[in-house]
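ARCHIVE CARD
CATEGORY: sequence design from structure
SOURCE FIELD: tokenized fold
FIELD CONTENT:
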């Protein structure tokens, strides 16, 4: 005896509509959470940049607004405007995930008007490992990012 399909067309469309509505609601919830988390992400990175700058240059820099990086290949980077507390000079601070001997760590670089990018330090590490990593300023990865950052940020030769 063949198995009968007990679902009629009306029941099928009702279930299909319910399923579609659930998918649409989940999509908008996901989109909303992503938008909400973006501001927390930017704020957390800003605090990390400020901490690294204060460790290297105590009370010299104020970290300002987030600067959008219009390059989808560098989603692991964030850029901020910085202003000198001494003379008001502006510049950029960039935090970007870089490979190291100890795994990937966020590195902070700054750019002032009349200079190239400068490596400041690593965020999120302390103690002996941090001092060992920062001693290697001639590291090929640091040199690579110093050469790539102007292109990533679409900077000319001058800081605004």
């Amino acid at each position: 005896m063949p198995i009968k399909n007990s679902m009629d067309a009306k029941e099928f469309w009702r279930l299909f509509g319910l399923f579609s509505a659930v998918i649409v609601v989940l999509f908008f919830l996901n989109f909303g959470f992503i938008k909400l988390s973006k501001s927390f992400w930017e704020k957390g990175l800003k605090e990390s940049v400020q901490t690294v700058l204060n460790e290297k240059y105590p009370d010299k820099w104020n970290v300002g607004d987030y600067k959008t990086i219009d390059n989808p290949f560098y989603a692991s980077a964030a850029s901020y405007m910085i202003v000198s507390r001494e003379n008001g000079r502006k510049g950029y601070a960039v935090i970007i995930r870089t490979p190291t001997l100890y795994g990937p760590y966020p590195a902070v670089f700054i750019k002032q008007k009349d200079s190239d990018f400068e490596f400041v330090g690593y965020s999120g590490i302390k103690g002996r490992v941090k001092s060992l990593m920062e001693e290697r300023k001639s590291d090929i990865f640091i040199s690579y990012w110093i050469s790539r950052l102007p292109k990533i940020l679409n900077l000319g030769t001058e800081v605004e």
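CARD ANNOTATION: Strands lie at 61-67, 77-84, 90-100, 103-112, 118-122. The mean pLDDT is 84.
SHELF: design records, drawer C
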